[in-house]
Amino acid sequence: MINVTQPFLPPKEEYDKYVEGIWKRNWLTNNGPLVNELEIQLKKYFGQKHLLFLTNGTVAIQIAIRALGLKGKIITTPFSYVATTSSIVWEHCEPLFVDIDQHTLNIDADKIEEAITDDVSGILATHCFGNSCDINAIEKIASKHKLKVIYDAAHCFGTVYKGKSIFAYGDVSTTSFHATKLFHTIEGGAVFTQNADLLKRMAYMRNFGHDGPEKFNGVGINGKNSEFHAAMGLVNLKYVGEIIQRRKEQSLFYDEMLQNLKVQKPVIQQGCDFNYAYYPVIFESEEIALKMKAELEKRNISPRRYFYPSLSSLDYVSTPSPPISDDIAKRILCLPLYHDLSREEQLMIVRILLRTQNY
Ligand SMILES: *Cc1c(COP(=O)(O)O)cnc(C)c1O
Questions:
Q1: What is the CATH number of the domain that holds 204?
Q2: pLDDT of 277-294, one tens digit each?
Q3: 106 lines ligand 1 (CB under 6 A)
Q4: Geometric angle at alpha carbon 217, from 213 and 220, rounded to 5°
């Protein structure tokens, strides 16, 4: 079985060593020493001053929306994982979809301004597949119209934009450390911000609003993560450079072997140093994409229709469907890409795709 992705598991002894420490301290969660250590190491890794390690990437988005006080409508992309849109609705806001750029697959900055109305309070954009949005254009529009910007950077571990970690951008950047992501803590996520007061507000929110044992500072939720999750992160952090390098080699190998496959691939945004998190290909039609998927599945290979359907088709949203996102969602497949995927397996995938095309 070759899945679209497979979680990275480090040598078990290295994880066990951390677990021994947890047993000694009997401190399992609530801002323990390993959570602290992971936060320090991640801040160093990304060169960022402010970060909170959270329970997952979805709660990260929800806390960001709350902390920024977003209300009414939020401009967002229809081409992302469902959590981007569902978090908006969960926070009692309304998603206002702006279509994507057909080359980068990210929200089309040129179409944002015409969508802005008085009841729009912010922009929530995803850096899809680890490729950055047109950050410069988005920041300009946001500052002109006094809108807050959240980036869903769930795919972006290791992506750099104009010399800085991509997490440095936006009023808040969120990410996910879920097991399927390039770097993971089993379940987990984080928020980043440049604003110390905003970080403080989000820190209260992460811990029920607790301000000491008997005092509360505003409404909060349980967004904490545990020592066990932090331990997995601390071990995986040692391997993440190797993981990204491997993804890059595998991606370049696909590029080389699939030159004759009639597909479109996302164009990397100018200024973006990409992390090779995913390998998406866009076929000429939905029919071809589905045929390719079926042929791969016959041999126990599972590509995924990331992201299908376009989020504007969710039954709890009500805005017109942006046509480019709709169209690309139907034709795209992400090919298997993970640490242990071998050259032989990649070649098998390549052969099936090319053979199916030539039928
Ligand atoms: C994975 C993902 C999320 C959700 O992260 P979780 O940690 O699974 O809650 C949000 N947005 C995008 C784009 C994702 O890929």
A1: 3.40.640.10
A2: 999 999 999 999 999 999
A3: no
A4: 90
Q: What is the number of residues in the chain?
A: 359
- The verdict on the CB of residue 327 being under 6 Å from ligand 1 is no
Atom of ligand 1 nearest to the CA of 155: 15
DSSP string, 201-220: HHHHHHBTTBSSTT-B-S--
99 lines ligand 1 (CB under 6 A): no
Last residue of a domain, one of 202, 217, 237: 237
Q: What is the pLDDT of residues 331-356, one digit of tens each?
A: 999 999 999 999 999 999 999 999 99
pLDDT at 318: 85
Is the pLDDT assigned to residue 359 strictly greater than 90? no
269 and 213, same structural domain? no
Distance of CA 62 from the midpoint of ligand 1 (Å)? 12
Residue nearest to atom 10 of ligand 1 (CA): 83
Q: Tell me the per-residue pLDDT of 40-95, one tens digit each, with 9 for 90 and over.
A: 999 999 999 999 999 999 999 999 999 999 999 999 999 999 999 999 999 999 99
Determine the Cα–Cα distance for residues 290 and 305; give it in Å rounded to an integer: 9
Residue 187 has pLDDT above 80, yes or no: yes
C-beta 178 within 6 A of ligand 1:
yes
Ligand 1 contact, 130 CB (< 6 A): no
**Token pair recorded at residue 32:** 């323990």
Residues 305 and 222 in one domain: no
Residue with tokens 């045929």: 291
d(CA 147, CA 165) in angstroms, rounded, equals 22
Contact 42, 177 (CB under 8 A): no
Ligand 1 pocket test: pick from 77, 81, 278 the residue with the most ligand atoms within 8 Å of its Cβ. 81
Q: Which two tokens stand for residue 332?
A: 């795209």
Mutate to test the pocket of ligand 1, among 176, 221, 307 (most ligand atoms within 8 A of CB): 176
